[in-house]
Structures are given as C-alpha cells and as structure tokens.
Amino acid sequence: MFVVAPLYTCLFSFSFVGLSSPVRSGIGLSKFIPRRVQQPRWKSSLLSLRRPTDMQPPTDASNVKLKLTYLQMKGFGEMLRLALFHGGLEFEDERISYEEVQRRRSEGLLPCGQVPVLEIDGVAHSQSMALLRWIGMRTGLFPVEHQLKIDAIHEAFADINKNLFPNWYGHILGRSPVDGALLVPMTDDQKSQTLELLNTVVLPCRLQRIEATYTSAGNDFFCGSAPTTADFQWYVMGSGLVEGTYCEGVSTQILDQCPNLRRIIENVAKLPRVVEWNAAHPE
Ligand SMILES: N[C@@H](CCC(=O)N[C@@H](CS)C(=O)NCC(=O)O)C(=O)O
C-alpha cells in the first residue's frame, strides 16, 4: 500500500497532463502487486494510524513489542539481531525459509517484498539500514555527534555490497521483486572476471580507503572507544569476509592490508553481549 501510493500519485498526475501510456502501464504493473498491497488501507479506515507511512515509531523502545523476521543465516539480519541484543531490547527472533518469504511476499505481508522485516508493535517495517539506525538511535549505537561519519561508513559498505551483489546471486539482477526468481544468469566467464577484479582491484581499494579515512590505530572502534551501528554492520560483513562465508570466491586475505578494520572485528567479537549471542547461536 505505502509502496504503491506514490506510484499511483505519479500515474494520476501523468494522466491529468494528457499522457495515456503511463495509465496503461499502470494497469500492466498492477498484476505484479499483491492484492493486499493494492488496496490502500485508507479506503477501509480513513483515520487509521497503523499504516507505516503515517506511523511515528516510538522514540523509547523499552516498552514496544519487537519481532525481527529474517532467513536462517547471518546476511543483512544478523547486525540487527546483534544490535537489538547488545542494546538490551527484547525481540522475537523469527527465522523463515525462502519459500515462506515468497509466500509472504505474494500475500503482501513484506513492505518491500523481502526480509529483514522488523515489526514494531505489530506494524511491519523494511530496509535493513533504516532498521539498524532505528535500533541504534534507541540503544546509544547511533550517537548524533558521529552521525555523519557513521552514515558515510554505512554507505561505503553499501557500495561494497552493490559490487558483490551479482556474485552473491550468480545473476546480474539478483531476485525478481515479483516472485523471487533469479534474473539474468552470469556466464562462467563473467563470474571469473568479476571475482578476479573484486579480489585484485575493487575490494582492496575500497577497503583500504575505508581503513585510511575512517579508522585509526588508537581507536577500538570506528568512532573511538564505544561501538556504533557502523561497527555492527562491519563486524558481520568483515568476519564473513575473513571466514570466507560473506561471498563465495572472495579471498579470505582481503583484509591483509587493513589492520584497523581487522581489529574492529576482533573488538566487536569481544563485547560481552556479542560473546553471549554468538555462544547461543553458533550457526
Ligand atoms: N535493501 C534491502 C535488501 C533486502 C534483501 O536483499 N533481502 C534478501 C535477503 S538478504 C531477501 O529477502 N531474499 C529473499 C527473496 O528476495 O526472495 C535491505 O537492506 O533490507
């Protein structure tokens, strides 16, 4: 519903200025959007405050009911689980299969069609980085005096994820937002060329720039002696790179020239709540 509203607004405005094709393509598009998502809730309840677009999530999360839904893997969900647990926010840790993601997507239950999803007092919210900041703001992991630096680090890691994306899926466009089908398979030659460039040029360069710009030998974490959301995002990504589980084919030596980034991973791993979480979740 909240995804489609701006789209409909856009289509209507096109039709008012006399362009008919967007209206036709709108009709075509609607078959991809689950029925539940197509029916704006304002039609049944004009005053509803439960729509995510209207809802102001609470600023104090100590009394809210939280449920985090993700796959049975680390991926984009683990930094959220860790940040919630480290911050002492109780949450239900729901882990579902790809088939269940597909079912919920077709039912219109996932705001952006994917996981992770964080339900806050029964209202579903998407997009892992938005969720991480929401958690960080309520647990001291996103201090305002470091906001610009933390956001820049998050974006720098997002750039790396974008580069890894085709190799994660073995498909250039990843998964279809309609039904999760893999789109545009990479050839073996493309796979080996991209891996070669990732290992020799793209990742070393990006990681060494992050090391040089955002870390210092005297700091335990990116922003000094206390961890932030940037350290939690990096911990999951960086430990996966070192273990060879983050992206198949990426060298486990990729951090050899980045001692500060390596130390941050070790320091997050030593945080008592992280130790406790990892002991309880060895997978
Ligand atoms: N930009 C989104 C990306 C979410 C995403 O890629 N989710 C994947 C798992 S990491 C997913 O739901 N895959 C299953 C599917 O699309 O069917 C975010 O950061 O939350």
Automatic annotation (TrEMBL):
Residues 1-25 form the signal peptide. Residues 64-143 form the GST N-terminal domain. One of its GO terms (biological process) is glutathione metabolic process. Residues 143-283 form the GST C-terminal domain. The lineage of its organism: Eukaryota, Sar, Alveolata, Colpodellida, Chromeraceae. GO terms for molecular function: glutathione transferase activity. Pfam families: GST_C_3 (PF14497), GST_N (PF02798). InterPro entries: Glutathione-S-Trfase_C-like, Glutathione-S-Trfase_C_sf, Glutathione_S-Trfase_N, GST_C, GST_superfamily, Thioredoxin-like_sf. It comes from the Eukaryota. Keywords: Signal. The keyword Signal applies. It comes from Chromera velia CCMP2878. This is GST N-terminal domain-containing protein.
